[in-house]
Amino acid sequence: MACDPMVVNVMIMMIICCLWTVVIFRASADVDDHVRLQHPLRKHDGSLSFLVVGDWGRRGNYNQSQVALQMGRIGEKLDIDFIVSTGDNFYEKGLTSEHDSAFEESFTNIYTAKSLQKQWYTVLGNHDYRGNVEAQLSQILRKMEERWICFRSFLLNAEIAEFFFIDTTPFVDKYFTDPKDQTYDWSGVLLRKNYLKKALQDLESALRESSAKWKIVVGHHTIRSAGQHGDTQELVNQLLPILEANSVDFYMNGHDHCLQHISSLSSSIQFLTSGGGSKAWRGDITELNEDNLRFYYDGQGFMSVELEPTNARIVFYDVFGEILHTWSASKDFSTI
């Protein structure tokens, strides 16, 4: 007797979800370990597609809802596998607890499109550190909203690509030496020197061992930027040399509330800022001397990434879903 194709597809998705749950549970068993996650490819051609958005959590205000609407539309068109969040997930001061209404009001009730009901791989931003950090990392939150995947630093193996998520906020000196009127939740980070040393060692080791066709590092803070915050010097000094030495293809970040693409002139790294998830900063742009600024937009929007074993395509969209900038490359990074 022939099987109904729809029933077969549903059964396959249920099996994948079960496998995913097991992977997350095992990876999360000891939060002190460097978390390693797996995201099996589901497309027959071995390709991978995802969206990147940052600096978004404002209860739908500052065009967050409109950006979410367009993300849903593009996500469906590209048949995305997941979403990457580059941090500053909840303004102005993160979450107060796992039961903070801001989680539903800024995430669950905003990103409602069917195409966005996928895993959200998330890093923390500096505004998240102004609240209860453990709330965003909590397994309680993960059980309430299965899409939500957030750790301080973690690895994600998506077969043709490997993602290295790194917690950048503790690297920034001024948050410790001159926090002004802000209070940061440094539980789990102190002793800071040891925390940073381990984070860099773990990243360097993982990058060195990786055989992925594409190596992608994700953090909240900029390394290179023409935006308001500019370069993050602590990351230029401590993180960038590791990325350059290990042939990283993309560094993706938020923090500057804009969309931008900068090509390194000294390596193959593409610096991609997707920080336009809600409130944007008009008119804040500075000149870059060392790197090639390919694109800068001081408004709201997001980014899509399509990867094949030998090709990549990056597209930036505005709040209306219109294409602002497209960049394609082969694995040897000769521009197409």
From TrEMBL:
Domain Calcineurin-like phosphoesterase: from-to ranges: 49-258
Name of the molecule in the record: Purple acid phosphatase
Predominant location category: secreted
PANTHER family, per the entry: PURPLE ACID PHOSPHATASE 3, TARTRATE-RESISTANT ACID PHOSPHATASE TYPE 5
Keywords: Glycoprotein, Hydrolase, Iron, Metal-binding, Secreted, Signal, Zinc
Cellular component aspect of the GO annotation: extracellular region
GO MF terms, alphabetically ordered: acid phosphatase activity; metal ion binding
Residues the record lists as binding Fe cation 2: D88, N126, H220, H255
UniProt organism field: Stephania yunnanensis
Cofactor: Fe cation
Enzyme Commission designation: 3.1.3.2
Origin: domain of life: Eukaryota
